[in-house]
Write a structure and sequence with these properties.
This protein is an alpha+beta fold and 300 residues long. 27% of the residues lie in helices and 23% in strands.
Length: 300
């Protein structure tokens, strides 16, 4: 891995690590950006979103779109953030934006078996961990139309922080989870046969621009970890780290008009309860691009 992610470059890693931890937010308020209309950002609003994503790989926004059911909100926001290659997959609608709701899943029975479309809790994960390398999900946008009557809170953790915590404990854990077959998603079948082939891949990788990517799920079923002692020890350590509160684990709940923009950071979701008229509805858009660089960061 190049740059600070090269396990043999201890000095480069320590320099990057110090800068990362010094700037990392410790409260959800630290990454909060008030917006008027996400579909038409002002220059200062865009700058604030990009700055937080450059620092923490994520930002949370509020907006004056309460009550609007319009998938153009995340789509137009994404374009302004430099996100153009949206991830079309079989559970998205025609515009590639997924409406995440229990109500929608009940109306469209093909989604009921998938946990995001239920009211159940979701463990730590990054999105698209079952995608092929050519369709790596590097950015994730969530926009809240309506929150649940109760529950539905999220924890957020910058995957670069998770990398630091794991590497500081034992660099061999990073080495094991960087193998090309560290984590395999078994094939998925439907009435037509194999709908998706088995998908092996690393947990940690670095893209051509030198940015760290994490591919992970804490699910214990439909996951096959490489069967060797090094990988098993690394998975156990990562699970323990994610189960332990850290100063950099952010907590919050998206309310109507709020949203999350991120470079596909680690996140989870608590279970929730819907009750009319409070029926949880989020729009989700996934992208094969990273969020554009903050101009100040690019200049540096």
């Amino acid at each position: 891995m190049p740059g600070p992610f090269d396990l043999d470059d201890l000095a480069g890693y320590r320099q990057w690590r110090t800068a990362k931890l010094d700037s990392a937010p410790r409260r959800i308020e630290d990454i909060l950006v008030p917006l008027d209309d996400p579909r038409a950002l002002t220059a200062s609003e865009l700058d604030a979103l990009l700055e937080r994503c450059a620092t923490a790989n994520m930002a949370v926004y509020t907006s004056n779109t309460v009550g609007e059911e319009n998938t153009e909100i995340p789509r137009r926001l994404g374009v302004q953030l430099g996100l153009h290659r949206i991830d079309h997959h079989w559970l998205t609608d025609g515009d590639a934006v997924s409406p995440i709701s229990v109500r929608g899943a009940e109306e469209r029975g093909e989604r009921r078996e998938f946990i995001p479309y239920t009211d159940k809790p979701i463990k730590w994960h990054t999105d698209g961990y079952y995608n092929t390398p050519q369709r790596t999900v590097r950015a994730l946008l969530l926009h809240c139309v309506e929150s649940a009557e109760s529950g539905g809170e999220n924890q957020l953790l910058d995957h670069e922080i998770a990398y630091i915590l794991l590497r500081d404990e034992n660099p061999d854990y990073i080495r094991a989870l960087s193998r090309a077959d560290a984590m395999t998603i078994p094939p998925r079948s439907d009435e037509g046969g194999v709908a998706r082939a088995a998908q092996p891949g690393p947990v940690f990788s670095v893209d051509d621009a030198g940015f760290l990517h994490m591919r992970y799920t804490a699910r214990s079923i439909s996951i096959e970890w490489r069967n060797d002692a090094a990988t098993q020890a690394a998975v156990a350590a990562l699970s323990r780290i994610l189960a332990t509160p850290t100063p950099w684990t952010l907590h919050g709940r998206l309310e109507p008009g709020m949203g999350l923009v991120s470079n596909n950071v680690l996140h989870d979701r608590s279970g929730f309860v819907d009750a009319p008229p409070r029926r949880r509805l989020l729009y989700r858009a996934r992208y094969l691009d990273r969020i554009a660089a903050w101009p100040m960061q690019a200049a540096a």
